[in-house]
Design goal:
alpha+beta, about 50 residues, two-stranded parallel ribbon, flat
């Protein structure tokens, strides 16, 4: 994740741990637990469509 802070070609990050970067970060922990995975996918979809 340290590399992500210096890159300028990222639109967003999906991560299981908190990170401080200048782009939106989607919490991916629900993908590991299975609880709330739909919300994660919805957030990713919104970010992709917003960048389009």
């Amino acid at each position: 994740m340290a590399e992500a802070a210096t890159r300028h070609d990222l639109d967003f990050i999906v991560s299981t741990s908190p990170v401080k970067v200048p782009v939106p970060v989607v919490n991916a922990l629900p993908l590991l637990t299975g609880m709330g995975a739909d919300k994660v996918f919805g957030s990713v979809k919104e970010l992709i469509l917003a960048e389009g």
